[in-house]
Amino acid sequence: MTTFSELRLDGVRRRFGGKDALAGLSLTIRRGEFIALLGPSGCGKSTALNCLAGLLPLTEGSIWQDGDRLDTLPPERRGFGMVFQSYALFPHLSVRKNISFGLQMRRLPRDEVRRRTDEAIKLVRLEEHARKLPGQLSGGQQQRVAIARAVVLEPSLVLMDEPLSNLDAKLRLEMRTEIRRLHQSLGLTTVYVTHDQEEALSLADRLVVLRDGRVEQIGTPEELHNRPANRHVADFMGYRNLVPMRVKAVHGDTVALDGSGLTLEGTPVGPVAAGDEVVAGIRPEDLRAGPHGVPVTVEVVEYQGRELAVEARTEEGVALFLRAAERPAPGDRITVTAAPSRVLVFGAGTR
Amino acid sequence: MTRAALRHRLAERGIDRQLLLLAPALACVLALFVYPFAYGIGLSFQPAEGGVLGAYRTFFTDAYQRDTIATTLGLALPAAILNVAASVPIAYRMRGRFRGKRLLTTVLVVPITLGTVLTAEGLLNYLGPTGWFNRTLISVGLTDAPVRLTNNYWGVFFSLVITGFPFAFLLILSYLSGIDPTLDRAAATLGAPWWQRFRRITLPLLAPGLATTFCLTFVLAFSVFPSAVLVGDPAGETRVISIAAYHAAYEVYDYPLGSAIAVIMGLVELAVVAVVLGLRSLLYTGSTGGKG
User: Fold this and answer.
1) Which residues of B are less than 8 Å from A55 in CB distance?
2) Mutate which of B183, B190, B284 to test chain A, going by most A C-beta atoms within 10 A?
3) pLDDT, tens digit (0-9, with 9 covering 90-100), for B141-154
4) Tens digit of pLDDT for each residue in A23-47?
5) Domain containing B84 — which CATH number?
6) Where do transmembrane segments lie in this chain (chain B) (predicted)?
7) Searching chain A, which residue's CA lies closest to the CA of residue B205?
8) Structurally, how many domains does chain A consist of?
9) In terms of DSSP bridges, do strands A68-69 and A60-65 run parallel, antiparallel, or are they unpaired?
10) Of A121, A186, A118, A138, whose CA–CA distance to A158 is shortest?
């Protein structure tokens, strides 16, 4: 395996027709790390991955593997493995030949090609399907071929472009575990692109949240989950209630808010002062129906197993998403409340 | 009750009153294609003398007639191969999107719209003994006497390439754009340089399309008539099979022989197409992942 201690992206910028698809991404990836690039479609995450792979030339910036400059090399000379969203398996080659393709390109001795291909096929548990064409496999099996094909070369970096987005929900969970297991057992360094925050949080050691080609926040899953830096990251991290409010008063670590038919206490992210227009972010699971709180009217109730997901409206007509243990009926008036530590307040700089 | 049930069962098989709408088209096909075709085949078995197969016997025993098959194959096969072979690299370069692609495609398509007669006239003017090409060669001093490029094999060959190439090129370009470009990129990330990507990924996926394109350009070239007369040597080197058929039917007025030659012409084409499609069936012919 070609080893390195760190891979550095230095102000990587990519412009498409005068518009920045990626506006200056700087990131240092340490060996063995699992990095997730997270963001909505069009945020530049796939552009970043293609720039890393060498499939897109950079407009500005550079990519370094320790002391070596990589961004001037064509993709075939970078030695990275890539798993494509569409899998991009060669339809005319058997599973075995798909997996051995990269080894053959390296002109390795025939015995070694056979041994390493066998190992990779075993690793993804496709022994029985080795002679089949990709078209004869299920989506999950094709996905495993794509992964085996990328990791058989023991690449210094594995790039994955939304590899699970074409699978059904159950398979997605299975493959997620599989990918993390492979990452750990093979000691890979992985950059993983996704728009699914749950996938990113569960897989990655560090997350990079992108929006409109810009980095919004870089951090561990815990940091992003608990302390999103701004409302866009919060939106992505499951803060489904983002309610415009006003700061009434500041009491040490907490602030009193009102507006949109709500009165709440919250924890500010960044400096806020009394009178500021802010956005309050609350996860549905942190907004509970209880005896004391703000009155709202129930509109839609969805059964979700252990809990009920409720959509309600405040007196000013702002929609709220919350959880309830008992089933309220649509049209019911209930009161809701949230712990101040669970209400994040995003001021002007972090809106 | 039973009447309704019968109508339902027929409708399930797609037999209902709307089928009558097919009648005019069917009548046209029968009257304009099937009947003359069958009539021609029937005619070929009714020569004035020599029994049922007399016309065929006449064709195969007369070397002057028989050799037209070899002459035509000698023109059509190389022309079709060249058209396909030359289209591949150009189409490969042009498979992506770039500025001016539409203009370039239009320029390449122009020869199809011109027709063989205009092409032939152009060739005679340009490549003829006093044409620009030869005058340039002589004035530069590369040759003393004009190179003969018209009214012989080469004239017809050039004409077949000029009219056949755009056709082959457009077909191959559309086959190429049907191959998912991600496959090429995937091969690149696996360490394959461009020629390996072409040889191992693009070419195998393109091969069935090349076979089909070859068949179509071959059939077009095999039935060459106007250019064989206009820029060829219709009494000698380029006496192709369609000239033989024309000669028999409309100069000698031996309709059975003319029909027999036409039938033989069809059979030779079918044989070549069958061989190529047979080879094609050995290739991978499934999905190529792209939009086409």
Assistant:
1) 185, 188-189
2) B190
3) 888 888 888 889 99
4) 888 999 999 999 999 988 888 899 9
5) 1.10.3720.10
6) 20-38, 69-91, 103-127, 153-176, 205-225, 260-283
7) A92
8) 2
9) antiparallel
10) A186
